[in-house]
Specification:
With about 170 residues, this protein is of the alpha+beta class. It has eight helices and six strands, in the order E-E-E-E-E-E-H-H-H-H-H-H-H-H. Strand 2 and strand 3 form a beta hairpin. Helix 3 runs antiparallel to helix 4, helix 5 packs antiparallel against helix 6 and helix 7 packs antiparallel against helix 8. The two termini are about 25 Å apart.
Length: about 170
Amino acid sequence: IYSGQMKKGDQLMNSTKGKKERIGRMVMMHANKQEEIAECPLAEVAQALAAGKLDEVGNSLEELLRNDPQNADAMLLKGELLIQRKEYPAAIQVLRQAMMLRASDPRLTYAMARAQLLDGKSLEGRQRMEEVLQLDSEHPLAAMAVAEDLRSREKYAEAVRLLRRLTDEDH
């Protein structure tokens, strides 16, 4: 799902300064200890996030975004981290920035919808879930969220139609 990597010696565009910069040193933080590393694949960050190593993920993402502030994949991971920490307004802000870079990415849109729903912005979150289904009509989690929302508003026929459409597309 998450791809890309950054290696010592790579050149990245520093959008703040408007010029390319070479990565001279990278470290992985372990509590208050630094371990020098040669590369930082986003896949490892995603794995650490899934394993619940939130401090490790936060440090890695902060460093990555300092070096590449336009990295939408890193912003997505940071948004997921903030959601896990229940910092919903901060997650919404980060995901909004990422969506400005890649507006048609269903992963970003789904993460934004989750953050909005968890932050109590139910109307915005429901609309965003619908948007996910427009971007990816087979997104099962978004479809289930929209169907559950329809059911909670007693729109049972619409919920059933949505779920049938998904199962019909699978076969």
